[in-house]
Specification:
Elements lengths: L19 H12 L3 H4 L1 H7 L3 H28 L6 H8 L2 H31 L7 H20 L2 H29 L19 H14 L5 H4 L7 H30 L2 H4 L5 H10 L1 H25 L1 H9 L18 H17 L3 H29 L14 H20 L1 H26 L1
Helix pairs in contact: 1-8, 1-11, 1-14, 3-9, 4-9, 4-11, 4-17, 4-18, 5-6, 5-17, 6-7, 6-14, 6-15, 6-16, 6-17, 6-19, 7-8, 7-14, 7-16, 8-11, 8-14, 9-17, 9-18, 11-13, 13-14, 15-16, 17-18, 17-19, 18-19
């Protein structure tokens, strides 16, 4: 069977209390948030036909699954807090792990938390009018309130996540199934799926995949809390596959009902496709109900992100490669308390400087692509350098599927780099900023 990897870091004080259901619903909540409502309008601007829109969401789900195959092997092999920080550290060098962890913590998670909080505040202002300053203040209060919930125990955070995940799955399935039956839509909006006359470019498809990828963000959420999942060799891979599969089905169903309600050309540029589709199907009341549900969905995803993100900083701090004190777990609540507070501070600072949802989306997506490409590289490296290490799960389709996943991610990253250079540069600059910090932390750890 080979040599087993230690189940957890020797200094890790977090307890294994999460079940397969908890881990799966953590993936679902991390993925299904605001993206499925707020991004279809931008996607329709790039893709002029229903079939192409379905294809983009199917490709996004397939690539998330391919990434899950790679992360399932890595997560089962190293069931520790920190996710890709651990994999890159083990595969290449502590510097590689640090830089990916740095990018994940400060850009992907703290940035996404800020984006979600801003989206909630903007949506809430439609019900209770408020200025931009008040919206930022509400977002900051929300970040700290959810952080406080996760501060007092992972079980409280997981319970809140399970409840919101069950509610959003049930509501989305009901909307997707009942909308075509009782709503005032038109099936002709879905035909023809492919006209064969559109002049679609690979660049346009790549730009459409950026918001799709953002909407699948969080498919690997359970690997970051692997040190708190019971029987991780079995439950980490299962949570990834079940979560990604369920999210892909829901996304395809939702796009079907959107297009049944609104033709592609009318969807182009729509800010909230879910609300617009509900209004078209059921009138003003339906739109208001979906608008309220969007806020609940965002809250669920925000909670999942707040739960996951601190484990990255916590894992780096356990190795002495982060700010002192971040490795401390709360003696009573057994949570990475200092890391939770640090993440809330960073998200609040980002909220104060956030300019727009779309720009934040592209910057975050570019960072995600860099991190997931690094994960695949770690899989190949560990297969070669540690062939005898025990692997409770081995990635299906290796080496072809992980390679295809890496190529697709690299292609979308290249499209973003050349067509959204400012947003991409933000991710690269923050990655480069981690280099001197690594030098400082590494030198301090040696003394």
């Amino acid at each position: 069977m080979g040599e087993p990897a230690p189940d957890s870091h020797p200094l890790d004080r977090l307890k294994r209390v999460l079940s397969l259901r908890d881990a799966t619903l953590l993936v679902v909540s991390s993925v299904i948030g605001s993206g499925i409502f707020l991004t279809p309008g931008a996607i329709a601007g790039h893709l002029p036909e229903p079939g192409l829109i379905f294809l983009a969401w199917l490709v996004g789900g397939g690539l998330a699954l391919a990434g899950a195959l790679a992360n399932a092997e890595l997560g089962a092999m190293y069931p520790r807090a920190g996710g890709d920080y651990v994999y890159l550290r083990e595969a290449f060098h502590p510097a590689a792990g640090f830089l990916v962890g740095w990018l994940s913590f400060f850009v992907i998670y703290a940035g996404t938390i800020a984006t979600l909080a801003a989206g909630f505040s903007a949506g809430f202002s439609a019900w209770v009018p408020m200025g931009s300053g008040a919206q930022v203040g509400l977002g900051i209060v929300l970040v700290w309130a959810v952080s406080a919930l996760n501060y007092v125990g992972v079980r409280w955070g997981a319970l809140a996540n399970n409840v919101t995940a069950a509610l959003k799955i049930g509501a989305l399935l009901a909307f997707g199934l009942l909308g075509p039956v009782f709503g005032d839509g038109n099936v002709e909006n879905l035909t023809p799926l492919f006209s064969g006359t559109s002049k679609l470019s690979l660049v346009a498809f790549g730009l459409a995949l950026s918001p799709v990828f953002f909407s699948y963000l969080g498919w690997n959420a359970s690997v970051y809390v692997a040190s708190e999942i019971r029987d991780p060799g079995r439950n980490v891979p299962r949570s990834l596959f079940l979560g990604v599969g369920l999210c892909t089905v829901v996304y395809l169903l939702m796009n079907g009902v959107y297009l049944y309600a609104i033709p592609v050309d009318a969807m182009n540029g729509v800010g909230n496709a879910g609300e617009a589709a509900a209004r078209a199907l059921f009138g003003g009341l339906g739109g208001r109900l979906v608008a309220a549900f969007v806020l609940v969905s965002i809250l669920g995803t925000l909670n999942a992100m707040v739960l996951v993100g601190p484990r990255i900083a916590y894992a780096m701090a356990l190795d002495g490669l982060f700010f002192r004190g971040v490795e401390r777990s709360h003696p009573r609540y057994q949570t990475p308390a200092v890391a939770i507070v640090l993440q809330a501070v960073m998200a609040s600072l980002i909220l104060l400087t956030l300019e727009s949802f779309e720009r934040a989306l592209n910057a975050t997506t570019f960072a995600i692509l860099l991190a997931t490409l690094a994960d695949v590289a770690a899989l190949y490296r560990l297969r070669r350098t540690q062939p005898d290490r025990m692997r409770p799960y081995r990635a299906w389709g290796y080496p072809w599927l992980p390679g295809l996943y890496a190529l697709a991610n690299a292609g979308v990253a290249a499209v973003l780099l050349f067509n959204r250079p400012v947003e991409s540069a933000v991710g690269l600059a923050l990655l480069a900023l981690g280099v001197p910090f690594y030098g400082f932390f590494a030198k301090r750890a040696q003394t």
